[in-house]
Amino acid sequence: MSFVEVARIDEVPEGSMKHVEEGDAEILLAKVDGKIYAVGDRCGHMNARLSMGKLQGTTVICPLHASQFDVTTGKNVKEPVLTSIPGAEKVPELKKYSERLEKIIAPVKTYDLPTFNVKVEGETILVNIK
Ligand code: FES
């Protein structure tokens, strides 16, 4: 496959993330220490859009259940946090629903993210879509 243009360099400031799409690929671009990284922008747990989460150093934190991934490798570095619905313990029906939801989510596996090779030519970020 070949490299395709996905963004301008000024669209990804230091310490930020950007969601881009190319064909069927949803890609998270992140700039850390002056380098651009590209990984899949769907969480390896339950598909939340990671670029809506937080970037701390080279770690992106999922906005849904807080799984963490290293944007330099795509590796899952911390499992999701599955907590009860706030206030559920006060409402019996909600407590029952919350407990059932936790049982359903608990066995869901978290997978590493796909990674993409990146190059910058002038002001343009290019990604190798596999
Ligand atoms: S969807 Fe990302 S941690 Fe659950």
TrEMBL record:
Q: What is this protein called?
A: Rieske 2Fe-2S domain-containing protein
Q: Which cofactor does it need?
A: [2Fe-2S] cluster
Taking the record's annotation, the residue ranges forming a coiled coil are: none
Alphabetical list of Pfam families matching this protein: Rieske
- Species for this entry: Methanobacterium veterum
Residue ranges of the Rieske domain?
A: 3-86
Record flagged with keyword Iron-sulfur: yes
Keywords, sorted A to Z = 2Fe-2S, Iron, Iron-sulfur, Metal-binding
Q: Which GO terms describe its molecular function?
A: 2 iron, 2 sulfur cluster binding; metal ion binding
Which InterPro entries does the entry link to?
A: Rieske_2Fe-2S, Rieske_2Fe-2S_sf
The highest taxon in the source lineage is: Archaea
